[in-house]
Design brief:
homodimer, about 150 residues, mainly alpha, Multidrug-efflux Transporter Regulator, Chain: A, Domain 2, 2 domains, two-stranded antiparallel sheet, 6 helices, about 5% strand, elongated, DNA-binding
Chain lengths: ~150, ~150
DNA sequence: CTTGACCTTCCAATGATGGGAAGCCCTACT
DNA sequence: AGTAGGGCTTCCCATCATTGGAAGGTCAAG
């Protein structure tokens, strides 16, 4: 086991946190690492390369399921280019529709701002609009599937 | 208690699911509803109006915390317009930065597609790029805070 | 031989929502 | 009057990626 690294080193060089490396192992995204006699995980340069692949895919917003599929394709020499493309294409169109939703929210909010005095008076067109029963506030239901945990 | 409605009716007319109405009550976003002798929740038209306000704000992507603040302002006649504006402004800039991230992911993916043959051959520039140690794939770390649960 | 930095596992929380089970309530129909 | 059904109740669990912490074992240097 020459050239093996601890999880901390693997985390530092791959950009994936040690926590997440253990997590990815537990959920089966990556293979279980070899261990020292003391139980420490050991990572080869090839493992770290895989971790980098995972991080880059996450940076592009791929889900863990997508990445699992991409990893399989990556390690399979007989893969067809179009299979990879299918995964990436699905992700891309999801991104595009998410972008469209966000832009429609931005537009609606900017519209609400148009008449906002931004002063000490209690009159506020933004609240008026939210309270207006005739206004569906761009009714497209957004909710959980597209993730507004804290930022949207 | 004339003019009172069950949670199902309130859900249907407000557009907020019964599940979520109970949830909002539990987390304190809305006040606990009155109950019948049998324990059924009862909603007045004013309650339903509040629920509509909540739904519209959610449709605009406001977080529950934001909405809680907006509700307080809405029910407070001495509010200052600028306080509402502060909440909405914070949300708007969060939306804008999220939009920017998504567009950078879209751009990166579209770039990967440029040389993709989309055929049966095993050669795939998308995977090559993900595996390329020299390529940080737009290193801006995205992750949990901006929500890619299933779509990104 | 201690100290401190690292590693281990396990459990919990985030945020908004959905799903389901087990059981009570109410109305309508036989 | 009894029953079928639908709606209501509470409680727990799952999602998704990630972080945090606690309790404890290991290793290297001082």
């Amino acid at each position: 086991m020459k050239h093996s690294h601890t999880i901390g080193e693997a985390a530092a060089t791959s950009g994936v946190s040690a926590k997440m490396i253990r997590h990815y192992e537990k959920i089966g995204l990556i293979e279980a690492a070899d261990r020292t006699d003391a139980g420490y995980r050991l990572y080869t340069p090839a493992d770290i390369h895989t971790l980098r692949f995972v991080r880059r895919a996450r940076n592009l917003g791929f889900s863990v399921d997508d990445i699992s599929e991409l990893l399989d394709l990556w390690k399979n020499d007989t893969r067809a280019s179009k299979d990879v493309r299918r995964v990436a294409d699905g992700h891309l169109s999801a991104l595009r529709s998410k972008a469209a939703e966000i832009h429609s929210m931005i537009d609606a909010l900017e519209h609400l701002f148009e008449n906002c005095t931004n002063d000490e008076r209690p009159d506020c067109p933004i609240l008026k609009d939210l309270a207006d029963d005739a206004n569906p506030a761009r009714p497209k239901d957004v909710g959980h599937k597209f993730g507004f945990e804290r930022v949207c």
